[in-house]
User: Fold this.
Amino acid sequence: MSYQWALAIALHQLGTIVWVGGMFFAHMALRPAANELLDPPQRLPLMLRVFDRFFPWVWVAIGLLWAGGFWIFLGVYGGKVGMYVHAMMGIAAIMTALFGFIWFVPYRRMKAAVARSDWPDAGAHLALIRKVILTNLLLGLVTAVLGAAGPKL
Assistant:
């Protein structure tokens, strides 16, 4: 059981590091620096290129998180876990849905707006993406705390 648990936790943690770490970096470092240094015609294509590279990795991270999470939940613990795990899974479902929204709505609209150099429209979609990413970042941090402290609560 310890080998299975270690592999499941490792996959799960890799997903967390990629997704939550990427959101933290983008929101707390990249975005403010880009806002300070670049005008919209430079900033918006840059942010779009960042999303073009980061968002496919988020899908990989989501797959790792759900696969690792269910492996731990069902395969290792047979579904007998504390309420904190159920809370983590509920938050993960919300985060996944929010990212799906980003992917299918404002990200695609931002891409189209950047392609036609419509900076106000692209900026509006980026602002929405930023708000949803901040929400997901906060949810991800709460989930990480639950995962670390939950067994002791």
